[in-house]
Amino acid sequence: MPKVRGENGEKVVLIEMDKKPNNLKYIFGPVPSRRLGRSLGVDLVPYKTCTFDCIYCDIGKTTCKTTSRQSYVSPEEIKGELELYLSALDKKPDYITLSGSGEPTLNRGIGEIIHHIKELTSIPLAVLTNGSLFSLEEVREALAGSDVVIPSLDAVSEVTFQCLNRPHPSLKIEDIILGLIQFRKEYRGQIWLEVVFCRGVNDDKEEIERLKGVIERIHPDKVQLNTPIRPPAEEFAYPLTTHQLEEIRKQLGAQAEIISEFTAPLGIESNSINEIEILNLIKRRPCTTEDISKALGLHLDEVVKYLGKLVREGRAHYRMHEHHCYYEGTLIH
Ligand code: SF4
């Protein structure tokens, strides 16, 4: 059983350590996910290539805002990495998730990638998307082979959509809603609609009532309510309290559930090697998520997940300095 040094220099026996191949560019994790268990991530676009620039985005501001679908990563490369990775893992992940550092449907090979993954393994496949391109028939068709699609829909009025998601100028919320309704008619898998609430932006009763009407038109299998708990792209993206989320849940009805991480149980995959390495690093010096990602060769999504867990457990904290968020290890006496 592999051993590493813990927070206080003690030897820690890991419950599990996967023999991960090095130098993978697109596959990361598995990361613990409240909804998807142990989720193996596949990144289909370059860092922060997205159709939106959400104020709450926890991986930073969008550097390439576009609606142009391109072959950012070749399906063969993803297939090759995944084959290598899956053969090296001791324990199968619960899900393979197409997500990463931007909007995965911007990769125009996503349909082929889904096809390759389904040929390779029976592990369920999920897609995390902002749903902005669902008005395109080819995007809806491309996702047909996946098992779960988790689109976000944070606003239903144009003005709120513009303030919160800051979309590419060609995108209109009504087209996105119509795309989601059409997708529901065609798609045979599960649709879990995610709504992220920011205080004072999309949490007023009228907006939520309108959202309720739209959800009834879309007919998702689940509605999942969230709020930013990790440092957001903009400091003014404030989270809701658990009580406020609970009130919204009641307003939206039985189908809605709260999935915000501050309601998640602690201790999943406690003391994983990544968590300990991150903690050891930020105890030596304050680091941004990018610093940690570069220093440890971890994907940003992975870093963000582990930091979220460490902050919730009180083992790390963060502070803002000149618009950058720095993490530090918390001294426990
Ligand atoms: S939260 Fe998602 S949709 Fe919004 S900017 Fe970040 S990656 Fe894009």
Protein traits:
TIM Barrel, 333 residues, 10 helices, globular, binds iron/sulfur cluster, single chain, alpha/beta
User: Based on the structure given, which CATH architecture is correct?
Assistant: Alpha-Beta Barrel
Q: What is the helix/strand order?
A: EEEEEEHEHEHEHHEHEHEHHHEE
Radius of gyration, taken over Cα atoms and rounded to an integer in Å: 20 Å
Listed once per kind, the bound small molecules are: iron/sulfur cluster
Tell me, briefly, the overall form.
globular
Pick out the low-confidence regions.
1-18, 262-268
CATH superfamily assignment? Aldolase class I
Structural class: alpha/beta
Indicate the percent of residues in helices.
25-40%
Mean pLDDT: 87
* Strand order, sheet with most strands: 3-4-7-8-9-10-11-12
- The CATH topology is TIM Barrel
Count of all domains: 1
Write the layout of secondary structure elements.
Blueprint: E1 3-5, E2 11-13, E3 27-33, E4 37-43, E5 49-50, E6 64-65, H1 75-88, E7 95-99, H2 110-120, E8 125-129, H3 137-142, E9 148-151, H4 158-165, H5 173-186, E10 190-196, H6 205-218, E11 222-226, H7 242-252, E12 256-258, H8 273-284, H9 289-296, H10 300-312, E13 316-321, E14 324-329
Parallel strand pairs: 4-7, 5-6, 7-8, 8-9, 9-10, 10-11, 11-12
Antiparallel strand pairs: 1-2, 3-4, 13-14
Helix pairs in contact: 1-2, 8-10, 9-10
The structure holds iron/sulfur cluster (SF4).
Task: Write a short abstract of this structure.
This protein is of the alpha/beta class. The protein has helices at residues 75-88, 110-120, 137-142, 158-165, 173-186, 205-218, 242-252, 273-284, 289-296, 300-312; strands spanning 3-5, 11-13, 27-33, 37-43, 49-50, 64-65, 95-99, 125-129, 148-151, 190-196, 222-226, 256-258, 316-321, 324-329.
